[in-house]
Amino acid sequence: ERQIVCKDVTAETLYDVLHDTSYRKKWDTNMIDTYDIGRLTVNADVGYYSWKCPSPLKNRDFVTMRSWLPLGNDYLIINYSVKHPQHPPKKDYVRAVSLLTGYLIQSNGANCSTLYYLTQVDPRGSLPKWVVNRVSQFVAPKAMRKIYKASLKYPEWKRKHNPTLKPWMFPEQNTLPCINVADLTVQRADSLENIDESGLSEEKTTQSDDEET
C-alpha cells in the first residue's frame, strides 16, 4: 500500500483524473493505449489498458472490470482482471493480471486530499530481478507523483475539454454498450501463457519516464 498527500487538489478532482481516459493520454507516459469496452452497471465497466515495459521486455496489457463508489466526501475505485470473449490476448503483448488494484481517495478539507494505492498484479512471465526491484522502488511512487501533478493541471484542462461530460458521476451520459456479466469470467493467471524473460538484462533507455507530453 502506498499513499500521497495531494495539497491544492480536491478529492473530487483526483477521482475525475483516475476516471478520465481522455486526460490519461496527456499524463501517463507509459501508456500505449486505453479504452472502455462496455458497462455492466451505473458504477461498473470493463476496459482495456496497455503499457510500455522497459526494453527489452515485451509490453503488457490488461482487460479489467472496474467499479467505483463515492463515500460521502471520499471515493473508492477498484479493479481486477476479467476475460472478455471479444478481447483475447494479443500477439505482441503479454496479458498481465490485476488480482486486485484499489484507489481510496480521502478528503482532507476543502482543497487537500490523500490518495491511497494498493495493487496486486501478476505481470506474467519469469521476470529478471532488476525489473522487480525497479517496479517496487520507482514505478509505483513515480506513478503516484504523476497522478498528483496531473491532478493539479486537470481543472484547467477540463474547462476546455467537454467540461460537463463526466459519465462516472452522471450515469445518464454513459453511451457505452451494455455487457452481459455472463460473458465475463475472472482472468486466472495460471491459464495464461508463461513467458520466460528472466535472462534479459536492462538496456539503457533514451526516453525518460518523466518526459512531459
Automatic annotation (TrEMBL):
PROSITE patterns linked: START
GO function terms (MF aspect): lipid binding
SUPFAM superfamilies listed in its UniProt record: Bet v1-like
Location relative to the cell: Cell projection, Cilium, Flagellum; Cytoplasm; Membrane
Keyword Calcium belongs to the record: no
Entry keyword annotation includes Membrane: yes
Residues of the START domain: 1-156
InterPro entries according to UniProt: STARD10_START (IPR041951), START-like_dom_sf (IPR023393), START_lipid-bd_dom (IPR002913), START_lipid_transfer (IPR051213)
GO cellular component: cytosol; membrane; motile cilium
Keywords, in A-Z order: Acetylation, Cell projection, Cilium, Cytoplasm, Flagellum, Lipid transport, Lipid-binding, Membrane, Phosphoprotein, Transport
GO-annotated biological processes: lipid transport
Region (Disordered): 192-213
Name of this chain's protein: START domain-containing protein 10
Organism field: Sphaeramia orbicularis (orbiculate cardinalfish)
Highest classification ranks of the organism: Eukaryota, Metazoa, Chordata, Craniata, Vertebrata
